Amino acid sequence: MGHATMTPRFICLLMLSLAVPGASASAGEPAPEPPPASARGWFENPTRTRGLLGSTALPLHAGEGFVGQQALFATVAEVGLSEGVSVNVATASFIYSMARAFQDVPFSLMGGIKVSRPLTARLHLAWGVQGGSFDTDLYLLDTLNAVSVYGILTYGTPDAHVSLTVRPFFAWGTHHSGSLMVLPMLGGFVRLGERWGLAGEVALSPVAGISGTFGFATAGARFMGRQWSLDLGLLAEQQWKDTDNPSVLPGLSFLFHWR
User: Fold this and answer.
1) Is 195 left (phi over 0), alpha (psi -120 to 50) or beta?
2) Tens digits of per-residue pLDDT, 213-235?
3) Cα Rg for the chain, rounded, in angstroms?
């Protein structure tokens, strides 16, 4: 697979994963009786609001949040403003600044807002908006911008859940007039011990736009404490019209959590 054909799809993946918001119960409405934090008496899972790259609709508590490196490349921060609303910001500039010795660092910043509503004790619906800009000198895309709306349906508990995300987004660049794409994603997590579990996601982009049609899958192990989490996994990506082998990359996330 050539470098030029890989670049736009991985830029899209990076922008889609830059902002990884949590969610919280809808403000002003009584929430259904929640399940216990853990049926086995473990501490509450601080990573319940996110997958390896995507998000879930499970709630953050008001004032709860996290900050750290997501998928190695993105520095992310998210906080629940209330029991109904959370906001997030993210950037790749920190990693780029170290890679380029703090010279000619490209600008990147994304932000978003997310609202979640519990439908039952185990079923949550979330929706939100994200947008931002990513500067790059690769593949004739001096600046790539994107705006996304999305919806997430999650079934389960903080220790075991499945999420379906539908995310249409509009992207445009310095040398690209703009196009609408969509990224459906299915992900899940299961906690196998108090301090670890397994997570995975599959997604596809069936509509060609600023990049060609492609699909990807993630799988990995998640380790956690009350105030930290570490993800170790793999990302495999394949262009639909490409006969080459999938591109496989290692992934690492380390986040500090507070409540």
Assistant:
1) alpha
2) 888 899 999 999 999 999 999 99
3) 18
Average per-residue pLDDT for the chain: 81
Average pLDDT of span 175-203:
91
Q: What phi and psi values does residue 25 have, to the nearest 5 degrees?
A: -65, 155
Confidence of residue 98 (pLDDT cuts 50, 70, 90): low
Distance separating the N- and C-terminal Cα atoms of the chain: 44
* Bridge partners, residue 226, by sequence: none
Residue 55 per-residue DSSP state: B
Model confidence pTM above 0.85: no
Q: Which CATH class is domain 3-258?
A: mainly beta
Please check whether residue 115 is in contact with residue 57, taking contact to mean a CB–CB distance below 8 angstroms.
Answer: no
Q: For the chain, give every domain's residue range.
A: 3-258
- Within 8 A by CB and 6+ apart from 110, the residues are 15, 18, 19, 89, 90, 91, 130, 131, 132, 133, 134, 146
3-state secondary structure of 13: helix
